[in-house]
Amino acid sequence: MKKGGELMEKEIKEMLGLILNKLDGLESRMDRLESRMDGLESEMNGLKSRMDGLESGVNGLKSRMDGLESEVNGLKSRQDEIYMVAKAIEHNSEIRGAEIDNFQYKVHHVEGTLNAIGDVITTRKAI
């Protein structure tokens, strides 16, 4: 029976050896998977960092756009004020033109009256 026991012991050792080889292979594969997972985690952290940078850049652009919008609104307001001043100057110019026309009319009327008086005086001297 010794031979049978030795044979069985040898088979068990062989099986255990195969199992250990398989386990070593699995452990090696697990180590490679862990290494790849670490690499993926590092890449994900890099991508997250880049996304944070992009988000910060977009927020900066939004802030600059808000500033530009505020400046444009200020320029529009100033343009409206300038337009109103120009319209007031134009209106004032029209009023002054009408006043000058009226004054010229009165001067011509007075001139006509004076000429008529002068004609009467000249005619009476001639008589």
Report what the structure shows.
It is built from 1 helix and no strands. The chain is mainly alpha-helical. 98% of the residues lie in helices and 0% in strands. The chain has one helix spanning 2-126.
- One letter per element, helices H and strands E, the order comes to H
What is the helix tally?
1
Number of strands: 0
Helix content: over 70%
Report the uncertain regions. Answer: none
As a whole number of angstroms, the C-alpha radius of gyration is 54 Å
Strand residues, percent = under 5%
Structural class: mainly alpha
Oligomer designation: single chain
* Mean model confidence by pLDDT: 93
Span between termini: 185 Å
Shape: rod-shaped
> Sheet bearing the most strands, described?
none
Task: Sum up the structure in keywords.
mainly alpha; rod-shaped
Topology:
Elements: H1 2-126
Concise account of the structure shown:
This protein has 127 residues and is an all-alpha fold. Helices cover 98% and strands 0% of the residues.
